[in-house]
Please model this.
Amino acid sequence: MVRMLSGSDLRVALLMRDAIKAVEEGFRMMAQGKVIIPQRVPLNVEEYSGVMLYMPAYIRGKDALVIKEVSVYPDNVKRGLPTIHGTVLLNDPRSGRLLAIIDGAALTAIRTGAATGVATKYLARSDAATAAIFGAGTQARTQLEALVEVRGVRRAWVFDVLPEAAKRYATSMSRELGTDVVVAKDPREAVSRADIIVTATTSKEPVVKGGWLADGTHINGIGSHYPTTREVDTPAILRARGKIVVDSREACLKEAGDIIIPIKEGAIAEGDIYAEIGEIVNGTKVGRASDKEVTFFKSVGLAVQDAATALAAYSAALKRGVGKEVEI
Model:
């Protein structure tokens, strides 16, 4: 029998604090060389202007073996369909047997929020209590949830190019998290008031500028994952030059415009990447060293996060009787 876990099942079965623990352990084991992550495989479907992405991962010792398939079809908006669909398959590494089929969109939102939670735990000031959230979509919801979990954020400013989306986000997140979420009148107001910043947008141009940052700010760059786009400008990267942290050096040097563009400009070098987050979790590198440091975490998303979170979700679902078992 195979367990089917929908998005609503995941929200019942997997608490954010448990997702953060799972992703933290996944990063730790990655730093220890116990994770196998083959290169992501893209398959272009040109006649329908789409692309399929296949992302496998195996965490040794955790029995976490997954492959995630993600489809990106921009023309779906004309069909009244989501641009992105995703499915995660969890297998038993001892036999290869399929254990679970999991809603990939919901799992991705949770695991990406959890990665921000891990980075914020190690890189934000211990007294950080305010946040700025750029973007008011699905991903922005789990981002703030993770910040509340690891730093008890009491107030957050949200900015979105669609003011009505920002208003809806502020209302619903204030109610759900018990945190005071308000709409920022402009990006500068949000940045200048925040101890922690999260960018979770589809913007091709920077939404955060270095001149707005106060000493001691921590930034999580989540939205941009193309070499030619970025959410954080070069002066902001220079402010964080001593503490530029990534989920994967290899992946970010191929995909993260927030890092690639300043390198091409000559503002920073590849060697200015201080650490992968797993090295900090593992204790090989230190996290925040002073309250005045500006720190920056860049994530393009790794299959190890899917593997760790999928296993945690499956285990929790079994204990709580969540999901539906089907025969395939």
Summary: The two ends are 7 Å apart (CA to CA). The longest helix spans residues 104-123.
